[in-house]
Specification:
The protein is an alpha+beta fold. The chain is built from seven helices and ten strands. Helix content is 33%, strand content 22%. The strands form three sheets. Strands 5-4-3-6-7 form a five-stranded mixed β-sheet. Strands 8-10-9 form a three-stranded antiparallel β-sheet, with no helix packed on it. Strand 3 (31-37), helix 2 and strand 4 (64-70) form a beta-alpha-beta unit. It starts with 12 loop residues before the first strand and ends with a strand.
């Protein structure tokens, strides 16, 4: 079953490098990032896990928990963590789910539903390169999918999280290439009259459907 933005993120119980978790319970009242990998001891994934480990304090500031997933067993993950620290300079301090039977990968539609947990080729694993941003309401807020050859841009994931959180707090949208501190967009569902009440400092109307205002504090 395909996962779509706005759907409830499927719950599951799984073993991780930090013990067994039940996903919804683990999220609690936080935001969460679930990102997946097709195999341990692979070059691109090694750089990603290390980079995100270095960026984790920024996600912490935003009340967001991080969890990785790889289709290999947890015992392999734990051996891989040493390589990540050695080559990337950051210790992975977030859990990494073991998914050798592809339970979570199939639950989140990250791999062909007929794939087996046995021996697989690189092509079989190729689709397990996804990022899900999940809100405190346990609903999927955004999804990204990458090929195996291109490392993910986790600075963009952080920027996207900022946009989603400001939308959740203030019901505004963000323009192309928006960064925190820049002007935001007033949704068309908000009338000019209501916008004047909500933003007494004023806003700029570029077109009746395109109104911008300073980012709310």
């Amino acid at each position: 079953m395909a996962i779509r933005i706005g759907d409830e993120a499927p719950d599951f119980t799984a073993d991780t490098t930090e013990g067994k978790i039940r996903f919804h319970e683990w999220i609690g009242d936080k935001w969460a990032i679930l990102f997946s990998h097709p195999k341990d001891f692979t070059p691109v994934c090694t750089t990603e896990l290390g980079y995100l480990a270095g960026l984790k304090p920024e996600f912490d500031k935003r009340g967001t928990k991080i969890v990785g997933l790889s289709v290999d067993p947890v015992a392999d993950h734990k051996r891989w963590l040493g390589d990540i620290l050695e080559t990337q300079g950051h210790a992975v301090t977030y859990p990494l789910i073991g998914d050798p039977e592809l339970v979570v990968s199939k639950l989140y539609d990250m791999i062909h539903p007929n794939a087996s947990g046995g021996k697989r080729t690189a092509n079989d694993n190729a689709t397990i390169r996804s990022v899900f941003i999940i809100g405190p309401d346990k609903r999927v807020k955004a999804m990204l999918a990458y090929p195996m050859s291109a490392g993910r841009n986790f600075d963009e994931v952080l920027r996207l999280l900022d946009a989603l959180q400001i939308n959740a707090r203030h019901t505004v949208a963000t323009p192309a290439n928006w960064k925190p501190g820049q002007d935001v967009i007033i949704p068309t569902s908000v009338s000019d009259e209501d916008a004047k009440k909500k933003y007494p400092q004023g806003f700029k109307t570029l077109k009746p459907y395109l109104r911008v205002v300073s980012q709310p504090k």
